[in-house]
Automatic annotation (TrEMBL):
<keyword id="KW-1133">Transmembrane helix</keyword>
<keyword id="KW-0472">Membrane</keyword>
<protein>
    <submittedName>
        <fullName>ABC transporter permease</fullName>
    </submittedName>
</protein>
<dbReference type="InterPro" id="IPR035906">
    <property type="entry name" value="MetI-like_sf"/>
</dbReference>
<dbReference type="Pfam" id="PF00528">
    <property type="entry name" value="BPD_transp_1"/>
</dbReference>
<keyword id="KW-1003">Cell membrane</keyword>
<feature type="transmembrane region" description="Helical">
    <location>
        <begin position="88"/>
        <end position="112"/>
    </location>
</feature>
<dbReference type="InterPro" id="IPR000515">
    <property type="entry name" value="MetI-like"/>
</dbReference>
<keyword id="KW-0813">Transport</keyword>
<comment type="similarity">
    <text>Belongs to the binding-protein-dependent transport system permease family.</text>
</comment>
<feature type="transmembrane region" description="Helical">
    <location>
        <begin position="187"/>
        <end position="208"/>
    </location>
</feature>
<feature type="transmembrane region" description="Helical">
    <location>
        <begin position="31"/>
        <end position="53"/>
    </location>
</feature>
<feature type="domain" description="ABC transmembrane type-1">
    <location>
        <begin position="81"/>
        <end position="261"/>
    </location>
</feature>
<feature type="transmembrane region" description="Helical">
    <location>
        <begin position="242"/>
        <end position="264"/>
    </location>
</feature>
<feature type="transmembrane region" description="Helical">
    <location>
        <begin position="147"/>
        <end position="166"/>
    </location>
</feature>
<keyword id="KW-0812">Transmembrane</keyword>
<feature type="transmembrane region" description="Helical">
    <location>
        <begin position="124"/>
        <end position="141"/>
    </location>
</feature>
Length: 277
């Protein structure tokens, strides 16, 4: 996004675009988000080709590609991917919905905060993965336990960052709303919720990666399909290349999801002036 200044240009009024590019990170590079992953792939390939990275430690990229093809044609890799995506999407969806609602209730009401914020902060100090044995006793070892675990992991970052965004809105906006006699509902809809959107999107980035972390763990428990199930079988048979295939798929999931959230954030928050623009 390019910011222009409507004020007349004078010797003492520098161009905002020039100042921000000189003092900020600089001009945006097209497709820059691919540079880091491609560099990592190049280092991995070079290390494998020169022998600096032993196949016993990390399978070479070309062997991973071969293993990917074998899993795709002979072992229903697509079905495993879709099964993992379904678990992650359901858990993440429930976590976003519940975390967002709790954050709004707690952020807009002192009573809501006194009832909700304490239990959420207690939950933050208790790792969700440590609760898996309890979830197994409550929900069994099937799909419900896996979705609940992912949802609970995703809920916390959504709540924390959205709540912080709501409480960080400048109080001058409330004073202005009272001055021009804006009702509470309209104030919340037009000022509070848009102001909390950056915090919500930041929470989304953490929630996406957290949901994948939960997915990696829960798919080790009695899963009959999914990337985690594929990795568990590969571990039993000593197939390091297949394990790396699963890890690469998890990494691609996380990177693409995070990039999508960042892209949505830039589009939705186009009205904000930041150094990223």
């Amino acid at each position: 996004m390019t910011i222009t200044d409507s004020r007349p240009r004078t010797a003492t009024t520098p161009d905002i675009r020039v100042v921000r590019r000189r003092l900020g990170p600089g001009r945006r590079i097209p497709y820059a988000f691919w540079i880091g992953p491609l560099l990592l792939l190049a280092v991995w390939s070079a290390g494998s080709a020169t022998g600096l990275i032993s196949p016993a430690i990390l399978t070479a990229p070309w062997d991973v590609v071969v293993a990917f093809g074998e899993q795709w044609t002979d072992h229903d890799l697509l079905g495993n991917i879709l099964s993992s995506l379904n678990r992650a999407a359901l858990g993440l969806g429930f976590g976003i919905a519940v975390g967002g609602v709790l954050a709004v209730v707690s952020g807009l009401s002192r009573i809501g905060e006194s009832l909700i914020d304490g239990p959420i902060q207690i939950k933050r100090s208790v790792p969700t993965l440590a609760l898996i044995p309890l979830f197994i006793a409550w929900f069994g070892i099937g799909q419900e336990m896996k979705i609940v675990t992912i949802a609970l992991i995703s809920l916390v970052p959504i709540y924390v960052h959205t709540h912080n965004g709501l409480r960080s809105i400048d109080g001058k906006y409330a004073e202005l709303a009272e001055t021009i006699d804006i009702g509470r509902a309209e104030f919340v809809r037009h000022i509070v919720l848009p102001g909390a959107l950056p915090g919500f999107l930041l929470g989304m980035r953490f929630a996406v990666t957290s949901s994948l972390l939960g997915l990696v763990v829960v798919e080790q428990y009695n899963a009959t399909a999914g990337i985690g199930h594929m990795i568990t079988l590969a571990e039993q048979y000593g197939q390091t290349d297949v394990i790396v295939v699963g890890l690469v798929i998890y990494g691609v999931f996380g990177y693409c999801a995070d990039s999508a959230v960042r892209l949505v954030g830039r589009r939705v928050l186009a009205w904000r002036r930041t150094l990223e623009d």
